Each structure stands twice: as structure tokens, then as C-alpha cells.
């Protein structure tokens, strides 16, 4: 997605060879117009699918996910990273291992918000090693709902997540694919390499 790539080039910061900071428009301050356009692009790419609900992970997945939900007029459900005081029973959980923090955390969704008839579009801000996405897939499949597809705003294609999700047979659509962050330079996977 051309406009997203341009935004990443202009405002993204390669903090290291592996970490991209995009807090100007996605991870802290949010650009709603760009998020709306991101959502339109997801909808175009998944137009062959029936989608009854969007599932994401708090907090940075929520902005693009809500825009998709708004356009499709379907609910948006976010997995929580911390246990809620009011939400304790009937939780479906899955473990997420973070390679960067080298720790395992549990994410959860209330079972009552998912049903076996649901066709879920998973939306998240980043795809790196794929652990967060796999945990969301795991939760959806634990209730026998269907994963219709996975929409990612920024995929770091030099990490393993994309290949892993593809190999499992899911339709994965990443709107910007980063080839490298070496030498503080943000390089994208070109259209031909897609
Ligand atoms: P994964 O589980 O695919 O390794 O990592 C996905 C999650 O880690 C994303 O939801 C995102 O919150 C975070 N993440 C991974 N890499 C980056 C990065 O380079 N920049 C930012 N801002 N977040 C990242």
C-alpha cells in the first residue's frame, strides 16, 4: 500500500536492525485517516470472504480493527493482555511468547463474544515472529470459529511470522512488508518480490 509505505519512510524510525518505531501514526499517536484507508485496503483484499467479526490484540491493533469493523458494520473484539477485574469467568486464553522480551504472557477473550458460526478477520499492527497472531488464531479455533483471514498493517518480512502463517494455509495480507532495517534504513519488499 503506497501511502502507508510513504508514511513509514517519512515518519518511521529504525531503532535497531529488528525494531521499527511508528508511534507517530500507529503505536501511540494515531492517524485516523490513514487507519481508515488501511481498513479499506483490508476490505478490498478480503472481499472474497464473509466476515462476521474482527478480532485483534490490545492496544495497537484496535485502531485499524475498529475502522474495518466500522466499514463492514461488524463487532470488533480485542484480546486482553492483562486480566480484567470485571472479566474473570468464561475466558479463552492462549500463550504468547515474546522473542524480544524473552517472556511468555497470556492473552484472553471472553468466550461469550465468539461463536462457532463466526468468520473472523484477525487484524494486528505488526507481524514479526508470529506469536501474537498464532495466539489469536488459537483462541478463535478453540471455540471452533473460522479464521477467514489475517490482516497485518506492517510485516517485518525478515522475521519468521509471515512464512509460518502462510504455511499453515491462512490468507495473510500485509499492507507494508519490511525487507530490512539494517543501518537504520527502512527497506521494503518490492511488489515483484511479494
Ligand atoms: P510477534 O508475536 O509477531 O513476534 O510480534 C507481534 C507483536 O509485537 C505486535 O503485535 C507488536 O505489538 C509487537 N512488535 C513486534 N515487532 C515490532 C516492531 O518492530 N515495532 C513495533 N512497534 N512493535 C513490534
TrEMBL record:
Residues engaged in binding xanthine: 20, 27, 156
Pathway involvement of the protein, from the record: Purine metabolism; XMP biosynthesis via salvage pathway; XMP from xanthine: step 1/1
NCBIfam families with a match to the protein in the record: PRK09219.1 (NF006671), XPRTase (TIGR01744)
UniProt: 5-phospho-alpha-D-ribose 1-diphosphate binding residues: 128-132
Source organism, top-level taxon: Bacteria
GO cellular component annotations of the record: cytoplasm
Entries under HAMAP family matching the protein: XPRTase
Annotated protein name in UniProt: Xanthine phosphoribosyltransferase
Amino acid at each position: 500500500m503506497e501511502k502507508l509505505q510513504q508514511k513509514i519512510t517519512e515518519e518511521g524510525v529504525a531503532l535497531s536492525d529488528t525494531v521499527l518505531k511508528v508511534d507517530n501514526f500507529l503505536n501511540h499517536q494515531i492517524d485516523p485517516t490513514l487507519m481508515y484507508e488501511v481498513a479499506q485496503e483490508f476490505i478490498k483484499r478480503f472481499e472474497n470472504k464473509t466476515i462476521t467479526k474482527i478480532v485483534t490484540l490490545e492496544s495497537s491493533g484496535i485502531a485499524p480493527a475498529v475502522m474495518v469493523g466500522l466499514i463492514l458494520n461488524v463487532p470488533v473484539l480485542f484480546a486482553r493482555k492483562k486480566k480484567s477485574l470485571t472479566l474473570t469467568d468464561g475466558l479463552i486464553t492462549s500463550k504468547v511468547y515474546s522473542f524480544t522480551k524473552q517472556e511468555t504472557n497470556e492473552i484472553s477473550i471472553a468466550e461469550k463474544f465468539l461463536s462457532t458460526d463466526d468468520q473472523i478477520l484477525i487484524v494486528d499492527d505488526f507481524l514479526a515472529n508470529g506469536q501474537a497472531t498464532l495466539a489469536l488464531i488459537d483462541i478463535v479455533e478453540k471455540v471452533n470459529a473460522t479464521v477467514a483471514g489475517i490482516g497485518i498493517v506492517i510485516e517485518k518480512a525478515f522475521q519468521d511470522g509471515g512464512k509460518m502463517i502462510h504455511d499453515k494455509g491462512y490468507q495473510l495480507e500485509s499492507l507494508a512488508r519490511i525487507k530490512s532495517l539494517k543501518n537504520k534504513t527502512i527497506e521494503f519488499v518490492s511488489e515483484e518480490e511479494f
